[in-house]
Amino acid sequence: MGLFSDSTSQAIPLLAADEDRPFFDFSLFKQDAGVLWDGAHSEGELAVDVSETATEVFVVAPLAGTPPESISLHLVNDVITIRGERHSPIPKAAMPFYQECFWGTFSRTIVLPVEVRPESARASYQRGVLTVSLEKAQHTATIPLLVIEE
Length: 150
Fold this sequence. Notes:
Layout: E1 44-45, E2 49-52, E3 56-62, E4 72-76, E5 79-86, E6 104-111, E7 122-126, E8 129-135
Parallel strand pairs: 1-6
Antiparallel strand pairs: 2-3, 3-8, 4-5, 5-6, 7-8
């Protein structure tokens, strides 16, 4: 008999408690963060905030646990890509009880809301938070009006 009473649900087997294995077999679940159903690893996607003022665009990303030397930023036209890698401090042999954090390589590509000046780009990494500041491109031009009289 399974854990569920209706016939459409699959039972999740419980294991006998002993010293070598847990009472509940967590290996039955596939991890969503970075593991495809066939077990191959994928890249994690980074959460970001994008904001703007009248003169700048800001991209902010929490990168807790990521060493600064593993972070790379690329800006091409109005597209910015953030890449990095972080490793879990927990030994690989440990069996996870909850696994919500993504460990491994990650990236995020963002189309910025406006055109920016790449030469003015600045990035800082403080207390695990990456902040990228990009100056907006100023395209101001006056167009002379030619009045044609008929």
